[in-house]
């Protein structure tokens, strides 16, 4: 690895192409202007992923939490998201792409079920809010019985809830109630200090981790969070709207986040370490520009349908909505393949 490192702020977010969120995050990650990348155009090996020696999650388990509970969610959407995400994460031809980043090319995924969190629909959720929620769920025993070393807890935000990356908690964010996203947007909220990090500006979701306990009993809890990507009543968008049905956008966003979490789970520790050169040791697979496996494909997706597609399932009839992930084998985003790509770790 050369001495010029770009890991002061590695990527761990899902962003819409051309959005303010993309511009803000890429600027702070010192990512250079990219070349065009889409099926059929020249590959971009300069964005290939590099293994930095950090932790990986080859045997991934995950849980879905639907924030806001039954009043905020249609049961049909919960069922569609649970089923669709499980099918995507366990599909053989899709996993044939991701397996290249693990020793011997072996990966497994187990869906550990879903639960609803019955608080009223929050207006805005920050990183401080979700990390506080993770700690509370740990303390009250909700996370008991899960293997924290390999489990990612997904937090699905309901229709009308905005998301940002502010590290400070939003007062009452996970217990407040708004009638609509338009109402929430109409009143300025100090929980959104940087507009490029607001889900109305293209932020779809992100993954991270929190530490609980100390010393020998210190534990790491992995999480991912994402919005109900949709067109809002005022005609603007919340999140990344790639499909005509919001539940499909949710599936694609969390497919992105789970694959990034399994290939770079401790990125939050690298971010916390800042410009310290030791920060790099926390990273799994990222490009030299700080991009994770889901990032560069979205940056170059114009239109989004270049990499957001419904693909046929390997072992059963039907399709599943996903976002193509970066593949070193083709130096760009790769869809499902029948033969696994060559493992990059022996």
SS content category:
alpha/beta
Order of helix and strand elements from N to C terminus: EHEEHHHEEHEEHEEEEHHEHEEEE
Give the biggest beta sheet: 6 strands, mixed
Strand percentage, roughly? 15-25%
Low-confidence stretches: 1-8, 30-38, 175-195
Characterize the quaternary organization of these chains: single chain
- Number of domain units: 1
Tally of DSSP β-strands: 16
Provide the helix percentage. 10-25%
Distance between the termini: 19 Å
**Secondary structure tally, helices:** 9
Lateral strand order in the biggest sheet: 1-8-9-6-3-4
Global geometry:
globular
Q: What is Rg?
A: 19 Å
Q: What is the average of the pLDDT values?
A: 85
Provide an overview of this structure:
This protein has 346 residues and is of the alpha/beta class. The chain has one domain (13-35, 47-330). It is 25% helix and 21% strand. It has a six-stranded mixed sheet. Strands 2-12 form a two-stranded antiparallel sheet. Helix 3 packs parallel to helix 7 (246-263). It is globular, with a radius of gyration of 19 Å. The two termini are 19 Å apart. Residues 1-8, 30-38 and 175-195 have low confidence and may be disordered.
Care to give the gist of this entry?
The protein has 346 residues and is an alpha/beta fold. It has helices at residues 20-28, 69-72, 75-90, 92-98, 127-139, 181-186, 246-263, 267-273, 295-299, and strands at 13-15, 50-51, 59-67, 108-117, 124-125, 151-156, 162-163, 203-212, 219-226, 230-231, 237-238, 285-286, 308-312, 319-323, 325-327, 332-334.
């Amino acid at each position: 690895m050369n001495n010029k490192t770009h890991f002061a702020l590695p990527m761990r977010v899902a962003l819409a192409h051309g959005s303010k969120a993309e511009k803000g995050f890429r600027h702070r990650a010192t990512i250079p202007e990219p070349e065009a990348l889409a099926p059929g155009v020249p590959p971009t090996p300069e964005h290939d992923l590099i293994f930095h020696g950090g932790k990986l999650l080859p045997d991934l388990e995950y849980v879905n939490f639907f924030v806001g509970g039954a009043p905020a969610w249609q049961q049909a959407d919960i069922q569609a998201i649970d089923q669709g995400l499980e099918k995507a994460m366990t599909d053989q031809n899709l996993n044939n792409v991701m397996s290249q980043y693990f020793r011997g090319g072996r990966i497994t995924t187990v869906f550990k079920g879903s639960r609803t969190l019955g608080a009223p629909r929050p207006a805005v959720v920050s990183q401080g809010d979700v990390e506080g929620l993770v700690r509370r769920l740990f303390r009250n025993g909700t996370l008991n019985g899960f293997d924290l070393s390999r489990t990612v807890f997904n937090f699905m935000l309901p229709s009308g809830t905005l998301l940002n990356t502010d590290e400070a908690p939003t007062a009452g964010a996970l217990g407040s109630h708004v009638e609509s996203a338009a109402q929430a947007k109409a009143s300025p909220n100090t929980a959104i200090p940087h507009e490029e990090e607001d889900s109305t500006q293209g932020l779809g979701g992100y993954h991270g981790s929190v530490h609980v306990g100390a010393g020998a009993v210190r534990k790491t809890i992995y999480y991912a969070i994402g919005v109900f990507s949709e067109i809002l009543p005022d005609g603007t968008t919340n999140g990344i709207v790639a499909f005509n049905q919001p539940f499909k956008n949710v599936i694609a966003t969390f497919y992105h986040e789970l694959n990034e979490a399994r290939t770079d789970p401790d990125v939050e520790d690298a971010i916390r370490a800042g410009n310290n050169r030791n920060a790099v040791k926390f990273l799994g697979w990222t490009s030299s520009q700080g991009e994770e496996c889901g990032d560069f494909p979205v940056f170059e997706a114009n239109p989004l349908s270049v990499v957001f597609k419904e693909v046929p399932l390997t072992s059963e009839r039907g399709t599943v909505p996903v976002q193509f992930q970066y593949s070193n084998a083709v130096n760009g985003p790769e869809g499902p393949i029948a033969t696994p790509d060559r493992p990059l770790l022996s």
